[in-house]
Amino acid sequence: MTEQQQTPVTPRPAEPLDVAVPAPSPAPRRDRRALRAAVRWAAAVVVFAVAGAGTAYGITRMERTDVPGLATESDGRWDYPLLTKPPLPSGSPGPRAESNPAGAHHADLRALVLPAPRGAKENRTLRGARGWLPTDVFLAEIAEKEDRDEFRQRLVDWGLRHIAARGWTTEDGTRTRIYLLRFDTASVADDRFHRVLFPYAGPSHRVAGTENVVSDETFPEAATVAGVQRTVYDEAEPRGAEHDRQAYLVSGDVLAVVLQSRKGAAHAVPFRQTVVLQSQLLG
Q1: Annotated domain spans of the chain
Q2: Rounded-to-integer distance, Cα 113 and Cα 119, Å
Q3: Cβ atoms within 10 Å, residue 195
Q4: Predicted confidence band at 44 (pLDDT cuts at 50, 70, 90)?
Q5: Residue range 235-258: average pLDDT?
Q6: What is the distance of C-alpha 255 from the center of its chain?
Q7: What whole-number distance in Å separates Cα of residue 176 and Cα of residue 6?
């Protein structure tokens, strides 16, 4: 796989991620100031379910002290930087446009990978050369050699173009790896990979270090991002030393793989937050 040369183009201005802010009801002036501050510092919508409750919440990424009525204690979310979608080349449609039947992401794939949260330590192994990751580094996530070989051949047969990736470890020991795989068309990413390799019951291959992986039925439907299909798995007990969570997303011609691992228990809130934010960058 080699990087194709592209004709220089004039980029469009960067597109900010949508921020869903409900219309405030009449309130005293000090509440309005707090709401304005919240909007000013918002970066992206994070939808998640509070552990042990069935209600899903949508809330913009901001300092908790900026949100009227919320306690200052951490709820487990990570502090991600301000997120904006990368610019498109002038005249190029987005992946969901009717004029783009192939579902192509014309933006730089490397700019579509979610950045690490503040305070996390980067995994430099996933940087690759000029931002492009060798296929074998990605395939090393798969436990069995036979499965790695099968996946590698599938990538060759169906025209993998590039892999962009990023990884980090947070202070609590949670390891996150995100891989974006770009193909020629949306039908290849969905029909030949997502639907075949990541069905509801469980992935077709075992990620290294995992044991019994099942569908994560606790992931809130309210966290769905338009234009992005999602399959999410959790590792059931009994587990090994680490707890692993997995998400596989497809948006247009890109298949995204999101993996999180932590000794003891991998917390649900930062995993859901990471999946939703990566989905928003792709959608």
Answers
A1: 84-282
A2: 18
A3: 13
A4: very low
A5: 96
A6: 10
A7: 31
